[in-house]
Design a protein that fits this description.
Layout: E1 6-9, H1 11-27, H2 38-45, E2 51-55, H3 56-68, H4 74-87, E3 90-93, H5 100-107, H6 116-128, E4 132-135, H7 138-143, E5 151-153, H8 154-159
Parallel strand pairs: 1-2, 1-4, 2-3, 4-5
Helix pairs in contact: 1-3, 1-4, 3-4, 5-6
Length: 161
């Protein structure tokens, strides 16, 4: 596979960054002075070679985590989210509908955990926009090749460079 230009970032790729952002917000530190997780550090190093994408689904997952686990307010969630989009120059895809028939068909072909339904929504967005999905979820990548095969894990992405 050639080095993909347009990358859809699965939520599990950016979770640790948002935990770092939440710690900074709670301690009153500047978001630009956090220690970056290794994955994010690498994404930042190679960002001139790629266009990064997330979706409103990602935002919903991140906001749930920031509010429920990190106790950030709605306003703080937006501050952190907006900073993230600018920090890595990420484009947010606003999804208005998801084809649950197609997702149901994929789930009827392979066994899956409950959380896989959210992951397949991300995969559907990547597929719809012809993006390569970057994920830390190897079972998703292997199990659902039949649904969409433009999925790479972080190690593969790093080795491409």
């Amino acid at each position: 596979m050639d080095i993909p230009n347009e990358i859809y970032l699965d939520t599990n790729i950016v979770y640790k960054l948002f935990d770092k952002f939440a710690e900074a917000v709670k301690s009153g530190k500047d978001l630009t002075h956090i220690e970056l997780p290794a994955v994010i550090k690498f994404l930042k190093e190679v960002k001139d070679k790629h266009m990064y994408f997330v979706s409103i689904i990602t935002r919903a997952e991140i906001f749930r985590h920031l509010h429920s686990a990190q106790k950030l307010s709605k306003e703080e969630c937006y501050v952190v989210w907006d900073f993230f989009l600018g920090f890595l120059q990420v484009t947010e895809i606003l999804v208005k509908e998801v084809d649950f028939v197609e997702i149901s068909d994929a789930l009827a072909q392979k066994p899956a955990r409950k959380t896989t339904i959210i992951n397949l929504q991300h995969l559907w967005v990547a597929k719809k926009d012809n993006l390569t999905m970057l994920t830390g979820d190897k079972p998703l990548k292997e199990r659902f090749k039949v649904f969409y095969d433009r999925v790479i894990d972080y190690i593969e992405f790093q080795q491409m460079h």
